[in-house]
Amino acid sequence: MAEASRILHTTLIPNFSTPSHKTPSSYSPRSHPTASHSSRRTTALVRCSISTVGDTSRTTSAATRTIPWGCDVDSLENAEALQKWLSDSGLPPQKMAIERVDVGERGLVALKNIRKGEKLLFVPPSLFITADSDWSCAEAGEVLKRNGVPDWPLLATYLISEASFMKSSRWSSYISALPRQPYSLLYWTRAELDKYLEASQIRERAIERINDVTGTYNDLRLRIFSQYPDLFPEEVFNMETFKWSFGILFSRLVRLPSMDGRVALVPWADMLNHSCEVETFLDYDKSSKGVVFTTDRPYQPGEQVFISYGKKSNGELLLSYGFVPKEGTNPRDSVQLALSLQKSDKCYKEKVEALRKHGLSPSQCYPVQVTGWPLELMAYAYLAVSPPSMNGKFDEMAAAASNKTTSKKDIRFPEIEEEALQFILDSCESSISKYSRFIQQSGSMDLDVTSPKQLNRKLFLKQLAVDICTSERRILFRSQYILRRKLRDIRSGELRALNLFDGFRKLFK
Ligand SMILES: C[S@@+](CC[C@H](N)C(=O)[O-])C[C@H]1O[C@@H](n2cnc3c(N)ncnc32)[C@H](O)[C@@H]1O
Fold it and tell me: What is this model's ipTM?
């Protein structure tokens, strides 16, 4: 699945070109959707507005507001129709079928023996949804393209537009089988993020992502939708439907390396769930001209088939896909450790200046894995603990702390090594205590619910939060152990040297 993390900041908003400002009054009547489009969409509008009636209260909105398309993935609702439509549309016979599964609720299961190293799937390009796909309402697509809307917001709008055309969209069977509410942190309210993810840095990432999606929608609304209300009526193109379509993109869009990194929704392929135990990923196969993946293990009939969504931490998987792998099963797992300069540091200003010069701030996060921490983190720690006498080295340390510079990162300052390691250990332990507090309190946490539906949702969110906090804390526990051992070695080495020195002194006396 696509690298969702970078998308909004790097490709969305900055790429927006100024629209050609067609005001509604200057808007040509020729641009109106055809009569059949209008009537089909009217049906969709009615359904859309009915579904949101009475859902304006803050407390119920995220939990109960539903989108008038898609289905509940825990049933196989619409899966059969999807498989039939896919084969009618050119999907060749497959060795897998959509079934209910233990991991990921719905997934692809082997129908026959599958060998290791077999090329599976084969979805032809005619079944991909890309930024070049034909729109049921061609005018709407033209307006977005004329305004230079980048791929992600374009695809998000496309999905809503096609969904609103219901049966008359060519993607109707596909859209009907998509989750009505993707499992995404986009659906968590701010209060839920604050309550459940207080200890984890993923909270900040989720807030940033929600703000990016909201900003993107507002930008589209201001620049384009409001100029063409007939093409983009607010009853259909609103924050709620955008949250849905971005949730779908975050959890299903694939980046195809062999197609120059193009992004696409690939029906059928997007029914595959993730396993941390496989390395194989979806890609376009130039020789057979379709999306495939090569199995890296055999499967027997009835077994669920998996791919890898990429080398992602548990936090990143939660952020985009809404699940947390079982504790200890993800070898790529990492946790963001926050480090900060002490305001009381005599050289605070100089250090901040050095960091700023290299694109860093006084508080920085670095990824820590069970196998260790990056050299940049160690460089930051050197800077944080270095005394005023080392001010000639601040720039070198800040440069090495930045992953943006190409300068040497593996710097060593034995004279302040112990302080630097102690500084990392302190940060690590303060983070551990935040996680432990949350995990301890989660047992007796007031879920503040008024209905069984809300209770289920809150219990689910709480479980995800406990899972992510437990897996992140586990990495920090490992780092704490390594740091304590290193410090013990340094200190016992110093003690030995001191004893040796004392011995020599006595001898010479
Ligand atoms: C690309 S879709 C895969 C198909 C999906 N299960 C469905 O029924 O539509 C990605 C979504 O599947 C679910 N999923 C994938 N791998 C999972 C896993 N290892 N554990 C739990 N859920 C998983 C998550 O809800 C994720 O957002």
Answer: 1.00
